[in-house]
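This section describes the prediction task in plain terms. A model, or a person checking by hand, is given the sequence of a single protein chain and must write out its three-dimensional structure as a string of tokens. No templates, partner chains or ligands are provided. The sample shown here is typical of the held-out split.
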Amino acid sequence: MVISEIYRREFTFGFTIFWGTTLMLLFGAIVLVMIGLSKEMGPLELIFTYLQNNIDETVNIYGNMGLDQEKVIQLEYYGKVVANIISKIYPALVIVGTGLVVWVNVVISRPLFRMGNIRYPDFGPMDRWQAPEFMVWGVIAAGFALFFPMASIKLLAINSLIVLSVIYIFHGLSIVLFFFNKYRVPTWARLGSYILIILQQIFLVGLAFAGLFDQWIDFRKIHKKEES
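The expected answer:
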């Protein structure tokens, strides 16, 4: 319903994803607060308790299957480590996950709208999409913030870097899509490339750097065309 209202207002693709994600997160936060109040728990406490219970349940299942006690102790240790890591980057994971859900809805709605002869917003060519230039300052600020001794600032910096990195990965994907279209790469080769990118995380890192440095290198030479 939110996305349909955003479509009606004819926002850009970036603003469509941004506002869809923001409002979905706001709605989720309200629901969590209401559930937490009914259990006399805060929303973060509710999430971390749920996470820890799932890890403990998994360890108990393996213990009941006859696993060695030493292995069970190792599982408990690694479970606590994983829970500790996730608790620190959970805000970024929620934002990224929600953004991906909104992005999938926007992408899938395009062919569905065409099948139903429904007007779809004109977002322009997706192979020319780019992250806003001011986001570079967010990356720089978050990078410097990692050197601050305060734990709260470090956590904010880490979560910010994760979210910004994902945005630049999509920027890098638009660059890849541009060259696929330019050289008319067949569908089977495109699918193979996308699968390889998903399976090999090093390519995701490369896409993030490509999106970040595209601000200066201009791989697609679209900045020069806009200026002329």
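For orientation: The mean pLDDT is 86.
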